[in-house]
Amino acid sequence: MKFTQGCSNKHRLERVRFRDELHKSFQITDDFLMDRIFRAFDKGSKGYLKPEDFVCGLSCLLVGTLNDQMKYCFQVYDLNSDGYISREEMFHLLKSTLVKQSTEEDPDEGVKDLVETALKKLDCDHDGRVSFPDFQQAVRQDSLMLECLGNCLPNQTAKKEFLQIIRGETEKKY
């Protein structure tokens, strides 16, 4: 996708168009997480993306180092931007990503159990919340923890396909 194709103004990409592209290009479908991803890309909280915001965000998603991706995922999961992921934030993230099944049991109970399990894995200093150093340590011990609170990175196939498109467009220009 060329940046200007998705822009109402050639120098800004609006949230709705960004979400459409995120879904189409990377099969990310959770509305709440797509908004969080937009906020992670939107440096300066402008409500739209400038070309440099878009390119830096895509770079992190597609070719970022593990440390870059840990910072990005933590930013997506830290809903109130206080530097910690709390039980309440985990509950909200997990509840929004889980498919609700009709059972006799209160659906929130299952989410609460998952929050406690995630907290045990992520809260390395046992203070009841997850700091960035906690998150880094947990992800380095088990890379699956990177997206344990929601799918906010493209899968390997989507990354590869998107990079091929970019490389193909670049080759045509030169």
UniProtKB/TrEMBL annotation:
GO MF assignments: calcium ion binding
One Pfam family named in its UniProt record: EF-hand_7
Domain EF-hand span(s) in chain numbering: 29-64, 65-100, 110-145
Keywords, comma-separated and alphabetical: Calcium, Metal-binding, Repeat
Entry-linked PROSITE patterns: EF_HAND_1, EF_HAND_2
InterPro entries found in the cross-reference section: EF-hand-dom_pair (IPR011992), EF_Hand_1_Ca_BS (IPR018247), EF_hand_dom (IPR002048), Recoverin (IPR028846)
Entry-linked SUPFAM superfamilies: EF-hand (SSF47473)
Keyword ATP-binding: no
Name of this chain's protein: EF-hand calcium-binding domain-containing protein 1
Taxonomic source organism: Elysia marginata
